[in-house]
Amino acid sequence: MAKENWTQVELDASVKAYLEMLTKENEAVFYRKSDYRNQLLSGALNGRTAGSFEYRMQNISYVLDTLGEQYITGYKPAKNVGSNTADLILESLKRNKFIISNDAEPTPDNERLQQRTKRIRRSINLNNKPTGQQNPLKTETTITAYFRDPAVRAWVLENARGKCEACRSDAPFYLPDGYPFLEVHHMIPIALGGPDTIENALALCPNCHRRSHLSKDKDSFNSGIYKKVKRLIK
Ligand SMILES: [Zn+2]
Ligand SMILES: [Zn+2]
């Protein structure tokens, strides 16, 4: 199984195929991953296995992901790519005229914004103050919205009696209408098929809400919530 490292020629051929597939995906042109795989395995990647081809594609996704770039969703980023191979993939992307977006460039895509922010923070010099954007450009996006049940929200918020159901703290402030401010959170997101019911929703303070979505320890935090709030059903 342990074959020698991939050559630049092999990586170039893989990157080229990858970028073609990515373009087709973006243009909604039908293609089969297996067609590309078979073609390469009988050509530039002669002697490699289907499994190693798949894995290399996932490595390319990983490199693109670290650049904050879009990758083929069917190839989940696999990060066990040696730094040498990652560099070769990067070189290959450049040779294939893949334009790596400028980190300093404003973006309407929240995920890219997060990734660019993270990279800039790593090497920031606080004495170089960014000038920012006086008139940020705008764009229109399509979003999917779900019909939410007001009775579920009302029940969850009333039942909480002004306390976060995770940390039990009082709501951080009152709204102009006199109600304590808490956020209704769905344990299984509606977008991932979760129901809009009181067995899947609870009232959280903004800190616990963000923690539940974003924190490093969100898995244990969320299983703690399930233990604490008995009405919730996994
Ligand atoms: Zn809380
Ligand atoms: Zn939420």
TrEMBL record:
SMART domains reported for this sequence: HNHc
A molecular function (GO) term: zinc ion binding
Stored InterPro entries: HNH, HNH_nuc
Residue ranges of every copy of the HNH nuclease domain listed in the record: 151-210
Protein name from the UniProt record: HNH nuclease domain-containing protein
